[in-house]
DNA sequence: TGAGTCAAATTGCAAC
DNA sequence: GTTGCAATTTGACTCA
């Protein structure tokens, strides 16, 4: 832009912008009001896109030579008799756009001034701003939609990663439980062997055997895990289910496996959390 | 030439 | 009564 089109006017809001032709002078040397005829001449001088050229040729006032101003008493209700709908020419749109950027609300005074300067009816200026706000709102909605779409994609990606991690952790848990169970089984076998070798009147051994009774299992049958239903000493049950009982105090284990067990124990502090959706339905 | 697009304009409603 | 908004209509224009 060779000319910024800005003009100061004490009678208008600070964001009011008069069209460039006023300040540039070349278009208004004769001191006549800027109207459609003048704007059409502007297009002839500067060159306009083909489409806009067509529009300027069909602009009202160009053919008839009449100048429309805001002071005209033309009805604001619809087009004047016999007048077809015409697009605004490029300079009118430019001026309106610049004004819109400065403020998308149209004060009555600004509307009148713009209408006068552009050779439009105030109603036309108001309608243009109204439609422009609608277009702006549509654009904003499209932008917001794009942002939300990107956020959704990011969340999906994050969710997939979490699910992969979750599966790994589940596998780790199962492997860990399987290993502990087999260790306990071996331990029990060794214990049985030692018992058989020892005297049968050992009270300690009797106590241990009594604890292996299924009927004294601390948990109801439906809470038992499938992997140990065939071989399930009471101690195994105790170990395996202790993490599910909030009141159970887990022993702290310091190695890597222990840290994972500690994690399981800490899960008892979070009753609402469980990584398996059907955790209540094992079997 | 007809479908699609864009923008000007209308209509109806609500808020102030 | 005025203004803004959403929905809709209308007309000019483009393009395959």
Brief summary of the model shown:
By secondary structure, this protein is mainly alpha-helical.
What labels describe this entry?
rod-shaped, disordered N terminus, 283 residues, mainly alpha, DNA-binding, single chain, disordered C terminus
Task: Please characterize this protein's 3D structure.
Helix 5 (about 110-120) packs across helix 6 (about 120-195). The chain is an all-alpha fold and about 280 residues long. The longest helix is centred in the middle third of the chain and has 76 residues, at about 120-195. The chain has helices at about 20-25, 35-45, 50-55, 90-100, 110-120, 120-195, 205-210, 235-240, 255-265. The structure holds a DNA duplex (16 and 16 nucleotides).
What is the alpha-carbon Rg in Å? 42 Å
Query: What structural class should be given to the helix and strand makeup?
Result: mainly alpha
Shape assignment? rod-shaped
Content of β-strand: under 5%
How helix-rich are the residues, as a percent range? 40-55%
Q: How would you characterize the largest beta sheet?
A: none
The counted number of beta strands is 0
Output mean pLDDT. 54
Number of discrete helical segments: 9
Strand-helix topology:
Blueprint: H1 20-24, H2 36-46, H3 50-57, H4 90-102, H5 108-118, H6 122-197, H7 203-211, H8 234-242, H9 256-266
Helix pairs in contact: 5-6
The structure holds a DNA duplex (16 and 16 nucleotides).
